[in-house]
């Protein structure tokens, strides 16, 4: 009898999976939600390898530098302006990918996509906007056939202000992160998690700050961005089992999920005929200057740039001021219409990312096998180039970046990126653009399409 019992115990020990033998023994750990690949924003960001701290503009650039909320595009002449964006990126549809750069391909990461939507409004020197980014993955536990839907949502809303007629721009963002996991019974991530089990959910808040230095008419610019760490807490507390450990859907739950702090700075320089860092003057201040010029007789008609003559100023001072204002804004439009389009823009960023205390990788959480992540500060480098090869019709981009690994046994992963943007059609006073991008690295690739406004 004793021999039979010992034999049964030996068989059970051999049968027990590594996840059970080496699994999490308590809830005192965190999921490191560090994102290594370049994601979010429009096609310009991915095409230029994410080197966007110094060139962030509009709602596409705001997630990379909150100063983008208040940086006007060249064609935004009026006191009020707005910007919209939308994009879809797909990865892993043809091959398995290494989701978190831990050196192993996930066998079910072939269902992954990212959606981005955003809008921005500009009121004189003040700008505000809202973006929503959702990343969805279908991942599986390595030692079982169980699949999980993983959804990471990021909502950003922020404000920015432009000083010195656009020479200095500053912005701040409130970021809301949600992280959900649910058992999957389908071949592609589900939308409402209607799998018969409530999703595991975490929510947290953080802040982002950015500064953009763009001296008027100069070819260079600098940017600086800081992001606070974000701790995501459970949306609902699960009851502990008899052993004192909280579980859900067969998983030992972490106390939190964590987005580490980040500090980034960048520089950009533009070659070619096209002028850059064009200033914009507030209507109220401009009216004061023009009124003084009309009063003392120093007013001069703006350059015509080869187009029709401007309106002559009437005798009435108030009417003359209105006409002078209209002439000035029309001169700004002509200036932008007639300036050269050919250029080559170079940009480079350096990124430092903080630690995650008691952090483990997302895949290790699903595998239920501890794999420490974020034990050291990470460093990344991004370099990108952009040029308009078909004036006012097509732009091309390329870049490369080093993705740090948060795991001790893995290393930096080099990426190569490319992108193309085309002007599709015009409507009212705007032009629509379409963008396609590609990001390739060992054990990873990502491609996407996006729509927005052509500038």
Written account of the structure:
The chain has 455 residues and is α+β, with helices and mostly antiparallel strands. It has 7 helices and 20 strands.
What's a concise summary of this model?
It is built from seven helices and 20 strands. The longest helix is centred in the last third of the chain and has 22 residues, at about 315-340.
Topology (elements, then pairings):
Elements: H1 2-15, H2 18-21, E1 30-32, H3 43-47, H4 58-61, E2 80-91, E3 111-123, E4 126-140, E5 147-163, E6 168-184, E7 200-213, E8 220-227, E9 230-234, E10 247-248, E11 251-252, E12 256-259, E13 262-272, H5 283-296, H6 317-338, E14 343-353, E15 359-360, H7 362-367, E16 378-390, E17 394-403, E18 413-427, E19 430-441, E20 444-453
Parallel strand pairs: 1-12, 1-15
Antiparallel strand pairs: 2-3, 2-20, 3-4, 4-5, 5-6, 6-7, 7-8, 7-9, 8-13, 9-12, 10-11, 13-14, 14-16, 16-17, 17-18, 18-19, 19-20
Helix pairs in contact: 5-6
**What structural class is derived from the secondary structure elements?**
alpha+beta
Q: Mind telling me the C-alpha Rg?
A: 27 Å
The spatial strand order of the largest sheet comes to 2-3-4-5-6-7-8-13-14-16-17-18-19-20
> What percentage of the residues does DSSP assign to strands (E)?
35-45%
Count of DSSP strands: 20
- Give the end-to-end Cα distance, rounded to a whole number of Å: 82 Å
Task: Sketch the major β-sheet.
Answer: 14 strands, antiparallel, barrel
Helix content: 10-25%
Q: Could you report the average pLDDT, rounded to the nearest whole number?
A: 85
Show unreliable segments: 4-21, 187-196
Morphology call: elongated
Oligomer: single chain
């Amino acid at each position: 009898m004793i021999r039979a019992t010992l034999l049964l115990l030996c068989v059970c020990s051999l049968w027990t999976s590594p996840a059970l033998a080496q699994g999490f023994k308590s809830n005192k750990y965190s999921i490191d939600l560090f994102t290594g690949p370049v994601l979010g924003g429009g096609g310009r960001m991915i095409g230029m390898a994410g080197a966007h701290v110094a060139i962030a503009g509009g709602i596409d650039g705001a997630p990379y530098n909150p100063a983008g909320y208040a940086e006007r595009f060249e064609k935004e002449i009026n006191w009020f302006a707005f910007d919209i964006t939308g994009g879809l990126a797909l990865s892993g549809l043809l091959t398995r990918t290494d989701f978190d750069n831990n050196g192993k391909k996930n066998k079910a990461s072939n269902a992954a996509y990212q959606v981005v939507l955003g809008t921005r409004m500009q009121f004189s020197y003040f700008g505000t906007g809202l973006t929503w980014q959702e990343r969805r993955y279908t991942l599986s536990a390595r030692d079982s056939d169980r699949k999980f839907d993983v959804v990471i949502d990021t909502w950003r809303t922020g404000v920015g202000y432009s000083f010195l007629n656009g020479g200095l721009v500053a912005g701040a963002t409130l970021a809301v992160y949600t992280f959900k996991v649910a058992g999957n019974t389908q071949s592609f991530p589900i939308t409402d998690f209607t799998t018969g089990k409530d999703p595991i959910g975490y929510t947290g808040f953080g802040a982002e700050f950015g500064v953009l230095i763009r001296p008027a008419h100069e070819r260079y610019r600098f940017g600086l961005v800081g992001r606070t760490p974000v701790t995501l807490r459970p949306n609902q507390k699960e009851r502990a089992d008899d052993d004192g450990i909280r579980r859900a859907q067969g998983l030992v739950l972490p106390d939190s999920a964590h987005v580490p702090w980040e500090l980034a700075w960048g520089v950009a320089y533009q070659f070619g005929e096209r002028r850059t860092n064009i200033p914009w003057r507030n209507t109220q201040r401009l009216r004061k200057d023009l009124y003084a010029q009309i009063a003392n007789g120093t007013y001069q008609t703006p350059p015509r740039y080869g187009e029709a003559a401007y309106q002559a100023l009437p005798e009435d001072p108030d009417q003359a001021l209105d006409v002078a204002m209209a002439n000035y804004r029309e001169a700004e439009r002509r200036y932008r219409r007639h300036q050269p389009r050919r250029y080559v823009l170079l940009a480079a960023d350096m990124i430092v990312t903080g630690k995650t205390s008691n952090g483990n990788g997302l895949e290790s959480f699903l595998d239920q096998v501890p794999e420490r992540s974020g034990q050291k500060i990470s460093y990344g480098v991004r370099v990108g180039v952009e040029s308009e090869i078909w004036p006012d019709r097509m732009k091309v981009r390329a870049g490369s970046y080093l993705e740090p690994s948060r795991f001790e046994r893995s290393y930096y992963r080099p990426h190569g990126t490319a992108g193309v943007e085309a002007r599709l059609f015009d409507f009212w006073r705007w032009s629509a653009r379409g963008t396609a991008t590609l990001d390739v690295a060992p054990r990873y690739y990502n491609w996407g399409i996006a729509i927005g406004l052509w500038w």
